[in-house]
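Structure tokens please, single chain.
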Amino acid sequence: MADELELLRSADPVPPDGPHFGDGPLDHNAERRLEQLLRDQGNRLPAPGLLAGHPWGHRGLLPGRLRDRLLPGPGRVRLAWGLVATAVVAALTLTLVLSGPGTPPAVAAPRPLVVETGSTPVSLHRMAERASAVAEADGAPRLRKGTHVQSWSLGMSDDKPPITLPEERIVRWRADDSHTELVVATDPRHPGRPVLSDEGGEPHLVDDGHVLLDQTYPPSWSDAPPKSAPPRDPARLRAYLMEAQYTDTPLTTPELLDAMATLLDNWTLGARESAALARLLAGAEGLRPVGRVTDRLGRRGQAYVYDTGGLLRMLIMDPATGAVLGLESTLKHPDPQYGVEKGAVMSYSAWMR
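Here you go.
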């Protein structure tokens, strides 16, 4: 047995002192060949595929001449190896987050929400009236800084099928203006099951989840939206949301929905703030009621859709209180390059109290 083990030890196909496998810089011949490949006009490096803040950014390529100007000398070699390393780390991280030991990576692409057949749509004006009635009642929910949200966003790749990464986040502020943030990658096999809770005053795990961030921040303060408290008056709330979106012009309906999402990612609205928001939504052009849906967390809600041309955005509101429950974007047209079909969910947020 000892002789066999010794034979196995000596049969290393990649010895550490091997001339062709050792770590270190490329030799002269290899560096010359890589330089030639990078300078070849026919070889191109991909430019960023998705622009920040826009789900369908310009997808372009850098021609060889421009690439040579941007990446002079040995920087091209470092960039090439850096791109490879980044891709490997990203793939490994994704596998760890979405799969358990001995299991293949889970692919969780939620289906679009379906409006219940025969359900009666409720107008946004009627919803705003319900929200106002709740705000006037005794014991109505009060404004709280921080959020509890479960969200999905579609990951895109040139050479892999699109996948959806579910995430849950709780942010809670303390009396001394410090705050904690807990972010968890939820189990994609159970995308509608919350895994976080802040019962007892501190965010914590209540179910399986891969912790991405668990951080406590020192006291901080700001009087600018969305960090400052939202007003309870619709007109003042409109100005607040415009400032949060860094614009002096009236918000379009898509911009209003984006500003609303920013607000809800920072604050858990009270009944009065929800009533003011419902009034703004009731005045938005093109946001039409379609009927009742069951949201990602199993809650009944009234749905309102807005057609942007390429995306269909769906707003979900609590039929009893007029509070916003969720916001979803689905693709109206397929994109064969990325293997995305018509109706694919591009992003989703479900806010909890």
